[in-house]
Amino acid sequence: MHKIEITLTPDELNRIPAKDQTIVMIDTLRASTTIVTALANGARGVIPFSTRSELEEYYRADPRPDYLLCGERGGRALAGFDLGNSPLSYQPRVVKNRIILLKTTNGTRILEQLPLTNMILIGAMVNSLAVTKRIIDLDRDVFLVCAGTQGAFSLEDFITAGRYSSLLQQEGWQGDDLVIAATRIFKDNQSFDDLINLFLHSRNGQNLLNLGYSEDIKFAGSLDLFSVVPYLKGDKIIL
Ligand code: MLT
């Protein structure tokens, strides 16, 4: 039977073995929710960047017309870019057949710290069932990697890890007390209203609320709107 592990902050990533693992990157508010939405709505790929300057340099080297420049800082859309990081703005008419160049504060940054020799999936609440099925099919131990917020623990990522853990435990997968805690907090708050209430009380939730993104929080807390399983292939996230 396979094992579930959760990492709470980027400092713990050195626990992940270099091979034979499945890794799920979770940044519920909002990078992983946005990546899932963009691909489900027809984008051909998402290329993640840690900094705005890296993204701009990449674009300048090859300014293809199908690129969309996207990203945020502190939750606010980057000035001069096509889109920010609100999943609701990644509508099919905007993203279909486009390649998204995306810079976010935590989610896209953590991706470059993961051991690429493993299978890396992008997980959110909005695609949790589909990703869980893929984890089971891959038949390896799984690390649920919470992106956190500037190095610190994030409540909404932990609750999302609890959703994945609860689905995997139904299939007999096992984890330590951290996995049990995440599962418990998810199960005790799994109604839409309770989940959104917890998200709203998180640090990221408060920030997004203050910036006027309350609809993003509701969207990010909606279970299984999509059945896509994005994964990292080379420098690009695709389906
Ligand atoms: C991040 O990567 O830190 C987040 O997705 C920030 C945000 O909410 O836009």
What's the name of the CATH homologous superfamily?
ComB-like
- Shape by Cα distribution: globular
- Physical arrangement of strands within the biggest beta sheet: 7-2-8-1-9
Question: What is the count of helical runs?
Answer: 10
Q: What gyration radius follows from the Cα positions, in whole Å?
A: 17 Å
Distance between the termini: 27 Å
Ions, cofactors and other ligands present here are:
D-malate
What features would you describe in this structure?
- The chain is an alpha/beta fold and 239 residues long.
- It has one domain (3-238): putative 2-phosphosulfolactate phosphatase.
- Helices cover 38% and strands 21% of the residues.
- The chain has helices spanning 31-40, 52-61, 92-95, 107-111, 128-138, 155-170, 177-187, 192-201, 203-210, 214-220, and strands spanning 3-7, 21-26, 45-49, 67-73, 76-77, 99-103, 119-123, 141-146, 174-175, 231-233, 236-238.
- It has a five-stranded parallel sheet with strand order 7-2-8-1-9. Strands 3-6-4-5 form a four-stranded mixed sheet, sandwiched between helices.
- The model has no long low-confidence stretch (mean pLDDT 97).
- It binds D-malate.
- The site of D-malate (MLT) has 13 residues, from α9.
- D-malate binds next to α9.
